[in-house]
Amino acid sequence: MQTYKLYLVRHGMTDGNETGQYIGQTDIPVTTNGIKELNDLRSSGIYPRCNLVFSSPLKRAVQTAEIIFPDSEIVTDPDFREIDFGAFEGKTPMELKDREDYTKWVKGELPAAPGGEATVDFAARLCMGVNRSLRTIMERGENEAAVVLHGGAIMTLLAVSALPRRKMKEWACGNGRGYVVRITPSLYMKSGILEVIGEIPQGGAHLINGDQQKLFR
Known about the structure:
The structure is a single chain. It contains eight helices and seven strands, in the order βααβαβαααβαββαβ. With 217 residues, it is of the alpha/beta class. A seven-stranded mixed β-sheet has the order 3-2-4-1-6-7-5.
């Protein structure tokens, strides 16, 4: 039975990651240190060779794709953008801690940040991005591709679609790291299931100590 692989990779370090801000669709670049880290990771050989790379159109993702997959065709897809944090955009948890709506949002009692995107809508568009990518892979006769996107996007996509089942925060990964996903078309078309079969680098995708302030962005 034909299967396909997607290599989900989180973009390189940004200023927002370093300061713990909620950075969703604000278009910020990878930092100088983040670029160095990505080059070091590429030199270590942790990334696969892929003819085709899909990417969020935000600068930090496109930069990352160009650095770690320099010889690949890069196709941007707006459905792979990070979530819109609305009124919480650019703020840190410390700055928001006294807001009642923030407390309710963190607890899952609000579907979205004020003026932002609902998690259920975010998950739906990420799945649309995967659908589109899979069709393109199949049409081009490829059997694998990379997808460069955001920390929150990876966590949300895998929380709603992946086997093994995990809570969203358990799918956290560091900058430049990620997961290997296998797609079996018959299983995916029937139930939307993605099978996580590895990490990038192997054994090292998860954030040390689950640093909650740096999961998204």
